[in-house]
Amino acid sequence: MSEMTRRQFLKITGTTLVGSSLALMGFSPGVALAEVREYKLTRATETRNTCPYCSVACGILMYSLGDRAKNAQSNIFHIEGDPDHPVNRGTLCPKGAGLVDFIHSESRLKVPEYRAPGSDKWQRISWNDALDRIAKLMKADRDANFVAKNADGLTVNRWLTTGMLAASASSNEVGYLTHKVARSLGLLAFDNQARV
Amino acid sequence: MTNHWVDIKNADLVLIMGGNAAEAHPCGFKWVTEAKAHNKAKLIVVDPRFTRSASVADVYAPIRTGTDIVFLGGLINYLLTNDKIQREYVVNYTDLSFIVKDEFAFTDGIYSGYNVDKRSYDKSSWDYARGDDGYVKTDPTLADPRCVYNLLKQHYTRYTPEMVERVCGTPKDKVLQIWDMIASTATPDRAMTIMYALGWTQHSIGSQMIRTGAMVQLLLGNIGISGGGMNALRGHSNIQGLTDLGLMSNLLTGYMTLPGEKEQDFEAYIGLRAQKPLRPNQLSYWQNYRKFFVSFMKSWWGDAATAENNWAFDYLPKLDKQYDMLQAYELMNQGKMNGYICQGFNPLAAAPNKAKLSASFSKLKYLVIMDPLATETSEFWKNYGPLNDVDSSKIQTEVFRLPTTCFAEENGSLTNSSRWLQWHWKGAEPPGEARSDLEIMAGLFLRMRDMYRKDGGAFADPIVNLTWKYAQPHSPDPEELAREYSGNALKDLADPKDATKITRKAGEQLAGFAELRDDGSTASGCWIFCGAWGPTGNLMARRDNADPTGIGQTINWAWAWPANRRVLYNRASCDPHGKPFNPKRKLIAWNGAAWAGADIPDFKVDENPENGMGPFIMNPEGVARFFARANMAEGPFPEHYEPFESPLATNPLNPNQPQAMNNPAARVFAQDREAFGKADKFPHVATTYRLTEHFHYWTKHVRLNAIVQPEQFVEIGAALADELGIGNGSRVRVSSNRGHIEAVAMVTKRIKPLTIEGKTVHTVGVPIHWGFLGVAKPGYLANTLTPFVGDANTNTPEFKSFLVKVEKV
């Protein structure tokens, strides 16, 4: 059976090659040949990634338009399981099968936003203004409430009035840098989803 | 996981308990199917619901949620009584022969040293007895009445099949059938794997449930072998990695721990963690703690970390108590916190008792959200009718919402349940102005550092001295960070045996943690990841899926911590002389000069087995512990305590001791105790769970998933539905003492009523995936219902067992 399939495959590809070569040389065939529709992924750029949902970590192939040239904007339009991956071997579950819709979800945040005290709506804020303001709030809180020594005079160097949650769906590199920053500030109320 | 996904195919028996891999981890579950199809494996599922995992099981048994220790404790009793243990394994590789101190005692569900006011134990009696040579006393004949074997046997005598039926509601014949199947794996040629997930962790006794499972596996000789192990399926794609990297309130990277505030002396801090062996010739690998710690501090604080300042020991914040999530929200609710940052985390949905969380966030001065999606937490201040009934004008919190990239828009690595670090590549730019978390964290940090440099402020040293040698300081590369946590030589490293030989040049990446030094000449941000980016490059990006031995050991695919080892404790797969217990599934073996095989040996590679070094090299005992010593909050042996909201009035295991009703060492805040419901008003047992079509609170934002599973529902057994007159598809209200949700009733035969202590107990299933934002139909956050109490060790909330009342709307 597999022999048959291989032979058929060679036959079809051979025909296509001959057909297209003839066309290149100007011998356009008079009658249209029945032809398989062009495989839509052949022009796509393939990128290997990992499903961000559960911890099986299925390998995925992401297909995008755009050739990664400086001025080209890539757009991922299809995701499927990576057949080379030793765990999922090309398969995906109902969650992973919908990944392309996650990337393009209408709930994706696109711009920094700010909600003022007492307000019932968001307003736009620039990255610079947002980060400046947050850094100032953090520093003011840290300077006002940092505990260098406890009541017994022991060195404790902790900042308890601000806390942080990190994301267990972020990469190791993000997690590492986040930990480095958070702990250098003296944060202790610091967790990730492993706690729940 | 001690083992890994593909290794499940080598199992002869699979026990899924406290998890539902077929629906929550479908592509991993395929390896169970593989084991069934090609290894003649049997599958057992024990779960309150007849799940899709159960639907393909050879044997399914129902169980009341929260009672797994009774089921497994009974199994331990059964294995010991019937001598269905792998004796060579347990005598040589566990602490069964160790003698316990005379002062240690257990009476009516309470261990020696309990302080009822503090709800905690003085654990000094929870230890082994020492001989004159300083080592632990043992009795290899297991005859001594104070040896762990006899104490263990004694402890579980109360856990009979009859008790299991009374407490768990599992029919006795089913119980015995399952125990008999499990006992069959006590022989060296049969392996059982245990697969569990949040169905075990999310209980006030969750850690001890998992320990009980591990104890069963040890008795059967199923740890360290191919097809065996304790396999935590883990919920998020990098929950393993973030824990490995220490992003928890009490951790540093690589399972090093932050100092407590009484640990002012650096040498004492190291000494407590670099434990000396408790038995002769044991490796006790944590003795290298100083090397890991110094290399870590050099990585973060570079030249500012010196031998003179104890490698900047005082830069680290010191703990006076746990600052886990629940503690943080308690402090917030008391008005003691001002700021909070949520990076890719939606606590309003993910933490217990939404009403308390909403009140807590409303007391903050500022809240910062970093996320690719619009989360409920980011809009906790906005009114969404009954789904989020708040008055925005009364909430004074400033909220910032910063858009981030998602997985598809960045390079980096994720660590899966198998401990594999797999590199992934960016496929597109993020939408709009979204930025990577690296850029945002760098942006915040650099601004703060500049202000501290310019204006000074509280203890600026750890901030201004933090290493930041990234080519683009405002946007570090994932590759730079991976090289940093893996580690490099800071100076030329000479061979300790031959000073003229340089083994590693300054600046060169290290191949593994064995190269780390405690003199400041090496840096490694996370010692267990050391070697992930080694001298030859990024091993996490490897893609050779060859499996030369055919047992699923693709050791050149990606990179696994530690040291690219795929099955932890694999030394225990061989007998004391180094011969594989099961030659058909050989992982490693002693070849007369070294340990080698299909895996990286989890052992000293040149250690002759005749010298008696134990396979559990991280433990100072050299062997695995049944007796946890002082390492657990509620006792050295797992004991059953009822959930904090229980349908029962007493704990059937300890009916005469009210202190032993619930976990005596669990932390309960006063207000939360008042918010617990009682069975008279809330007669139904509830448990939360995931659906196969959804992932947490993300996929309600994803069109395809919203189409296949659009609307919130709760699962109600047919018997309860009949009793309450609830039709399939009608709307019901489910209330706890903390709030209510309304949803569609799915009336099912998959949940049967159980008879517990002669009383009928109904279980209600509450899927967690809905909220007031997203493209799926808006719904209530399931955690409106759940109690604000956690496991005594981890403070993981008790989402899996609580009380509700179901009513027709």
Structural class of chain A: alpha+beta
Average pLDDT of chain B, rounded to a whole number, is 98
Poorly predicted spans of chain A: 12-23
Helix content of chain A: 25-40%
> Biggest sheet of chain A: strands side by side, in what order?
1-2-3
Structural domain count of chain A: 3
Q: What gross morphology of chain A would you assign?
A: elongated
Features:
heterodimer, A: 196 residues, alpha+beta, N-terminal domain of TfIIb, 3 domains, 3-stranded antiparallel beta sheet, two-stranded antiparallel ribbon, 4 helices, 31% helix, 19% strand, elongated, B: 809 residues, alpha/beta, Dimethylsulfoxide Reductase, domain 2, Barwin-like endoglucanases, 6-stranded mixed beta barrel, 5-stranded parallel beta sheet, 31 strands, 23% helix, 16% strand
Outline the structure in words.
- The complex is a heterodimer of chains A (196) and B (809).
- Chain A has 196 residues and is α+β, with helices and mostly antiparallel strands.
- Chain A folds into 3 domains: 1-36; 45-103, N-terminal domain of TfIIb (Single Sheet); 113-195, no CATH class.
- Helix content of chain A is 31%, strand content 19%.
- In chain A, the strands form 4 sheets. A 3-stranded antiparallel sheet of chain A has the order 1-2-3. In chain A, strands 4-5 form a two-stranded antiparallel sheet. In chain A, strands 6-7 form a two-stranded antiparallel ribbon.
- In chain A, a hairpin with an 8-residue loop joins strand 1 (45-50) and strand 2.
- With 809 residues, chain B is α/β, with parallel strands linked by helices.
- Among the domains of chain B are: 6-237 and 622-631, 3-Layer(aba) Sandwich (Dimethylsulfoxide Reductase, domain 2); 658-808, Barwin-like endoglucanases, CATH 2.40.40.20.
- Chain B is built from 22 helices and 31 strands.
- In chain B, the strands form 11 sheets. In chain B, strands 24-30-25-27-26-31 form a 6-stranded mixed barrel. In chain B, strands 3-2-1-8-9 form a 5-stranded parallel sheet, with helices on both faces. Chain B has a 3-stranded parallel sheet with strand order 10-11-12, with no helix packed on it.
- The two termini of chain B are 44 Å apart.
- At the A-B interface, strand 1, strand 2, strand 3, helix 2 and strand 4 of A face helix 2, helix 11, helix 14, strand 10 and strand 11 of B.
